[in-house]
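EI: anyone free to look at a 105-residue chain?
SC: sure, send it
EI:
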Amino acid sequence: MSSSSWKERKFLSKSLSKKSNNFTKGLMERLKIDESKKKEDHRKRAKQAYLEEKRKTNKKRRERKKEMKKHSKKHYNNNKKNIINMNISGKLQIMKLIYSLIFNN
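SC: here you go
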């Protein structure tokens, strides 16, 4: 709060206590309205800042989730290839064993 508004309120409150005229009452009411507008303005700005920060964090969270999905899919595909290769190599070993049993006798 600025010092000028404090001085204005002090002056207006003194003048109201001495004699209450409509002019000073109007000024006091305007000051109250200005303060309430300032408070509303601060609330709106704070809410906007909060929502903006929330959007940013949600965006970061989505990006991290996407990266993890990509990373896990890569591991899944590698494991799948390894299993296929193991199956093929296992079948080849069985074929070699059968071949050696048949033709070595």
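EI: The longest helix spans residues 22-104.
SC: 👍
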